[in-house]
Specification:
- The chain is of the alpha+beta class and 138 residues long.
- It is built from three helices and eight strands, in the order E-E-H-E-E-H-H-E-E-E-E.
- Strand 5 and strand 6 form a beta hairpin.
- The N and C termini lie close together (8 Å).
- The relative contact order is 0.39.
- The chain binds zinc ion.
């Protein structure tokens, strides 16, 4: 098995952001030369996530509002007793998930018609990373 590892870096202007990263993942898969296998895309921070869904601006806002409803900002979370203010970000990350595994067939991401990959930031304005690990046969 061959393994190829790269990192994507983010430093979002806003506290919350959703970034479409399918082109970057596709490029890393292409560079890896792997023809058959899978790629792991995993947020390396406990206040950010990675998910697969539709690249449709209304739905992206719907997802953000759904998360805000389930894990609102500014609540008296116990986590804040440590001096942090990002309890909501930890919970939002649990809801959205922290990583995805995507199939590679014939050297390309083998996604469904409407499947796209997103980085979801819940406590931004600082440097964050996503690991992209491509595994398989060349
Ligand atoms: Zn925290």
């Amino acid at each position: 098995m061959y393994v190829h590892t790269e990192y994507l870096q983010f430093n979002t202007k806003n506290r919350y952001d959703t970034i479409h990263i399918t082109p970057e993942v596709e490029e890393i898969v292409r560079e890896s030369g792997i023809r058959e296998g899978m790629v792991l895309v995993s947020a390396m921070h406990i206040t950010a996530g990675v998910y697969v869904n539709d690249l449709e601006s209304g739905l992206i806002v719907d997802i953000q509002e759904w998360l805000e409803k389930l894990a609102p900002y500014g609540q008296p979370y116990k986590h804040h007793q440590t001096g942090e203010d990002n309890g909501d970000a930890h919970l939002k990350r649990l809801l959205i998930g922290h990583q995805v595994i995507l199939p590679i067939t014939n050297g390309k991401l083998d996604l469904g018609t409407w499947e796209q990959v997103f980085y979801a930031e819940f406590d931004g304005q600082r440097k964050k990373r996503v690991i992209v690990k491509v595994m398989g046969e060349r």
